[in-house]
């Protein structure tokens, strides 16, 4: 039987037009989703089991052991949340308050500065629907959505015809890529590809700023000033422009100051917005949730006296300085994404992993607790990459608890 539409949680685009064929509570076919989405919706290739010290246990035993570890820890860390619903994130924040924990997520070493600037209204942003209907210039900066968010260009940013962009990509939209290599997205942009050197983003911004100010742009790398002047002209004439900022840009900039300066300059002559290319489906959701509760998006410590925030409370600094004596990892795989030395140190801390699927972190964990796959086996809400809240539906039944139920049970036992 065909059912839908469902929301795909394969990435932060949260496509909401997914249909699935279900037989005997099994998803046998997924329509509309990209390959990445189909593999997410069809479930884990290696589902996780409940284990304590490498031995299979029932879920109650695993939850009890996790509660004991957290209760006896003096400096616990709760990390992850990118692949969890908003409801789970609210619960993990409640748990962090209860056990005086540090809490952090991957935004701490990726898109965090952009999301923080948006929430503090320093960066103008818009929705993906506005992009579809209004955008005439789209810039993929240090981002390759053709691979990272495979339906981005077809759903919103380039190919669709919008209410005010009836002639679509052929005549009504200009796509530009600024990157260090000719990605698949850059290949679509033809001669509107601007190849910059590694860490050259700030210098390129300065050159573009000069061109926008009617000065001759200069770069230390081999880029024809005429090409930068041509880009400045396109941007000046734009009615509605959007920068999709990827990790390539974020990692290259030491501070957001050049980017803020550029956006302000662009907004002197046209309307320009920025949307961060968030990867995990609800990473932005965690930042919004924590911001609402504490005024900070990540790197928070719920101390006995007061809430603290700062780089010293990031997972990287906490592990590097041997502060943490237990860590609860939920909806994330930090051992696969942190720098090698930090990952090695984290692996030596007693780890509890809550996740539907096996991953590198779960393999090194003292306790693993298997949970339902959100958006497939349980419902909830999430925040899309552009800040829009989306409702996730359940597609099939499961007897596994949701992340939220597991966190509630751990809290009940502490
Ligand atoms: S683009 Fe992202 S949300 Fe959309 S179907 Fe693919 S993985 Fe799922």
Give a concise summary:
The chain has helices at 35-41, 59-72, 86-99, 112-119, 128-134, 145-148, 152-157, 168-171, 184-188, 201-212, 225-237, 247-252, 257-269, 283-294, 315-320, 334-337, 340-347, 360-363, 403-413, and strands spanning 2-6, 18-23, 26-31, 51-52, 55-56, 76-80, 102-104, 137-141, 174-179, 193-195, 240-245, 271-276, 300-302, 307-309, 326-330, 351-355, 367-370, 380-383, 389-392. With 414 residues, the chain is an alpha/beta fold.
Spans of at least 5 consecutive residues with low confidence: none
Distance between the termini: 44 Å
Q: How many discrete domains?
A: 2
Please name the CATH topology of the largest domain: Rossmann fold
Pairing-aware structural class of the strands and helices?
alpha/beta
What binds here, in terms of ligands, is: iron/sulfur cluster
> What is the CATH class of the largest domain?
Alpha Beta
Taking strands numbered 1, 2, ... along the chain, how are they ordered across the largest sheet? 5-4-17-16-15-6-7-13-14
Which term fits the overall shape? globular
Q: What fraction of the residues are assigned to beta strands by DSSP?
A: 15-25%
The radius of gyration computed from the alpha-carbon positions, rounded to a whole number of angstroms, is 22 Å
Largest sheet, strands/sense/barrel: 9 strands, mixed
User: What's the assembly state of these chains?
Assistant: single chain
Please report the total strand number as a whole number.
19
CATH architecture of the largest domain: 3-Layer(aba) Sandwich
